[in-house]
Amino acid sequence: MSKADNIFIAMCKDILKKGISSEGQIVRAKWEDGTPAHTIKKFAIINRYNLSEEFPILTLRPTNFKAAIDEILWIWQKKSSNIKDLNSRIWDSWANEDGSIGKAYGYQLGIRHEYPEGEFDQVDRVLYDLKHNPYSRRIIVNMYNHNDLHEMNLYPCAYSMTFNVTGKKLNAILNQRSQDVLVANNWNVTQYAILVHMFAQVNNLELGELVHVIADAHIYDRHIPLISELIKRTPFPAPKLLINQEKKDFYDFKLEDFVLENYRCGVQINNIPVAL
Ligand SMILES: Nc1nc(=O)c2c([nH]1)NC[C@@H]1CN(c3ccc(C(=O)N[C@@H](CCC(=O)O)C(=O)O)cc3)CN21
Ligand SMILES: O=c1ccn([C@H]2C[C@H](O)[C@@H](COP(=O)(O)O)O2)c(=O)[nH]1
């Protein structure tokens, strides 16, 4: 039984049982038909995934592993915020006529900043520190840039990663201000787990923990029946993640370098409505 499934089921049960409804409050998100997209939420959920034990992908329903990796490479490797560089349609609803989602995610990671050792963007700074000062307690990426919020269609949700080397293990904390539990919880966990795998491999570090801190973990009203059915399913054992071990430079990783072996999972829930 996959541990990621157990964590997901426990979190959903907790939100469904003890969560607070937004009914009666003013909410930003809407359904496609203009109805306010209300949620039940819990504040401050913390989920810990030990990446040395298993790869944290949901088996209750398929997570589109390739599309999730494609998006994390779009943000962290291509540093793009234009959907022309993305191979899925997941950001289409938030892009302008030029295909841009504004100064979000990848755009922020491409900005260069000055440090005592010279100019780096935030990704290159992490790679530099993991190589030269792995025991630094300052290895942080932050995409939540108040200067540029007015030029983003959606403010970054998964907005910060803190990397921490302990012994020979690479650990990380993913900070997320807002989480659509059905659509993107495992999507985000899978992609940041892959990122830790890539950074560990290129720095000859072992896999540690991914700690996912979610400030507002919510289930949208139209997702409640879908989640209630999903968490009654029986999970499968976790699949095995295989990564091309020859890749030693973060910028050389491609989609085909990642393979999931024995990914058994429940049937997909088709046409999940996504709140805008
Ligand atoms: N309400 C909302 N929830 C989100 O999760 C979300 C947003 N908005 N806005 C921006 C991005 C876009 N993200 C998305 C949007 C859609 C899927 C999605 O449709 N996932 C499908 C599979 C997609 C595929 O196969 O290509 C799924 O079943 O999980 C995933 C992430 C995450 N984000
Ligand atoms: O990577 C992502 C991107 C977006 N989300 C979700 C979380 C919220 O449901 C919406 C954003 O709405 P806000 O009003 O800006 O919080 O998108 C996600 O879970 N993961």
TrEMBL record:
Keywords: Cytoplasm, Methyltransferase, Nucleotide biosynthesis, Transferase
Gene Ontology cellular-component annotations: cytosol
Gene3D superfamilies: Thymidylate synthase/dCMP hydroxymethylase domain
UniProt enzyme class: transferase
Binding site for dUMP: 137-138, 177-180, 188, 218-220
Pathway given in the UniProt record: Pyrimidine metabolism; dTTP biosynthesis
GO process annotations (BP): dTMP biosynthetic process; dTTP biosynthetic process; methylation
Annotated family: Belongs to the thymidylate synthase family. Bacterial-type ThyA subfamily.
Record protein name field: Thymidylate synthase
